[in-house]
Design goal:
Order of helices and strands: EEEEEHEEEEHEEEEHHEEEHH
Number of strands: 16
Oligomer: single chain
Helix content: 25-40%
Radius of gyration: 19 Å
Largest sheet: 7 strands, antiparallel
Strand content: 15-25%
Length: 297
């Protein structure tokens, strides 16, 4: 928890990995912690540098995707943050954003068959209500990216829903806009990832209303919200090497954990390996070096 690091600002929300502070009626301070969640459960052990990677990478993407429509992003420049947020504890992990009325839906886009999408396909031959060709393999590229929304749960697990169910929740026109914006952002992210030797297998976005406009909010195309694969090692029919928290998911799944609290303890090598994957994703996607990057032994 970072309350003491943001003394003088009101903490208005503490999520699984982020804390939100009120600056005034129109602006918020969004702080990414080093907490890790998997299967919607928060682990006790932090991942060093994780919060700074999420914030810095999100800022990069918000700037890159600005031409696609409004976002809540204002600045991650420490000089533009409130003075109380210019502390060593918040270095690199605090972002100034516009206040938004969040839409309670996760906007998931899948370009490849993985994770829960792969499980659903094996069971039903479709994903999120999208019929898919027979005979697809795990990690196979889909004929085209598909929009597969889910609910946004504050506690417990998010639940996959169909596009029709999303339309019933938020209205047909808004559901259409969410799908269009999500597919466009995924396409832009996939192009950039491909240029760096990565594959953007899937990702999720969140949106909200700001002054009557639909705005992209929260985090964007980070290892927390996305599945990035190494293009060189990619092979359909397998579970590709990834630069995201799938590394942790695979470890805890193999441990026999039932995906309910409390989360199991992570050994030092898994913590170090997770940090390395997050930092590597940042470096490859942005083309910028990260200080003190150390590969796990």
């Amino acid at each position: 928890m970072l309350r003491s690091a943001v003394e003088g600002l009101e903490l208005i929300h503490r999520g699984k990995v982020r804390e939100t502070y009120r600056i005034d009626d129109e602006r918020l301070l969004l702080v990414a912690t080093d907490r890790l969640s998997a299967f919607d459960v928060v682990f006790d052990q932090p991942i060093p540098d994780k919060g700074a990677v999420l914030t810095t990478l999100s800022a990069y993407w918000f700037e890159l995707l600005a031409s696609l429509g409004p976002t809540h992003f204002l600045s991650a420049d420490p000089k533009q943050l409130p003075e109380t947020a210019r502390t060593p504890e918040l270095a690199g992990r605090a972002m100034l954003v516009r206040r938004a009325d969040r839409i309670d839906a996760e906007c998931v886009v899948r370009g490849y068959l993985a994770g829960s999408g792969w499980a659903e396909y094996r069971r039903d031959g479709m994903v999120g209500g999208h019929p898919l060709p027979e005979g697809l393999r795990e990690a196979e590229r889909l004929p085209e990216p598909i929009f597969t929304p889910s609910t946004k749960a504050e506690v417990g697990h998010d639940e996959n829903i169909t596009r029709d169910q999303l339309a019933d929740m938020v209205g047909g026109e808004l559901a259409r806009q969410l799908e269009e914006r999500s597919l466009a952002a995924y396409a832009a992210g996939a192009v950039r990832a491909e240029a760096t030797g990565l594959i953007l297998a899937d990702t999720k976005f969140e949106f909200g209303w700001i002054d009557g406009e639909l705005a992209l909010i929260d985090e964007v195309l980070t290892p927390d919200s996305s599945r990035f694969w190494d293009a060189v090692q990619y092979q359909p029919g397998s579970n590709p090497a990834s630069f995201d928290k799938q590394y942790v998911r695979d470890f805890v799944a193999a441990s026999g954990w039932n995906k309910e609290p409390p989360a199991p303890a992570l050994p030092p090598e898994v913590i170090a390996g997770t940090r390395y994957r997050y930092v590597t994703a940042f470096e490859r996607l942005t083309g910028r070096p990260w200080l003190a990057v150390e590969a796990p032994t």
